[in-house]
Amino acid sequence: MSKVRRRPVPGVTLLVVLLLVGIIARSNLIATAACVLLILKFFNLGFLFPLLERRGLEVGLLFLLLSILVPVATGKVPEKELLNNLTSLPGLLALLGGALATHLNGEGLKLLQLQPEIIFGLVIGSIFGIVFLGGVPVGPLMAAGVTALFMEVIRLLKH
Question: Where would you find the membrane-spanning parts of this chain (predicted)?
Fold first, then answer.
């Protein structure tokens, strides 16, 4: 009787590792994302992957913006206060910070599209930041943006 060798399903090992790392690091978002992707793989729902890849970021950003704008919608932050804040030093710095952050996020998205394998390092680095530096997990896109900035600085220094 010959032994039947089964090929491992691509990506499952890394997703299980990410699930475990997310659990150990108490990062519910990482653990949940890995778990959802594992469920999709095991139930042969891989046809959803291209949709998640194309639109997942937009849906996530939509919910992030919704949660941030709730105080405006409920009237907890008056419109007059918002307008006055834009002309203050913190408001102007917030405009600059927002512009820089979105630029870095765009560069991070390009990096992730060109080198998707870098995601594992970004996730592990984010977990390191959460556990040892008291950071807040805002997502791999910003981490990719900072990484893209580091890579650009190194590229410029080499020339």
Answer: 7-25, 31-52, 59-77, 89-106, 118-135
Which residues neighbour 105 within 8 Å (Cβ) at sequence distance 6 or greater?
141, 142, 144, 145
CA 34/CA 20 separation, integer angstroms: 9
Q: Where are the extended beta strands (E) located within 14-130?
A: none
pLDDT digits (tens, 9 = 90+) for 8-53: 667 899 899 889 988 887 778 888 999 999 999 999 999 999 999 8
d(CA 127, CA 114): 23
Full-model pTM: 0.66
Contact assessment for residue 95 and residue 131, using Cβ atoms and an 8 Å cutoff: no
Per-residue pLDDT of 126-136, as tens digits, reads 878 877 888 87
3-state helix, strand, coil in the chain (%, to 5): 80, 0, 20
Q: Are 57 and 141 in contact (CB under 8 A)?
A: yes
Q: How many CB atoms lie within 10 A of CB 104?
A: 19
Extract the tokens encoding 5: 């060798």
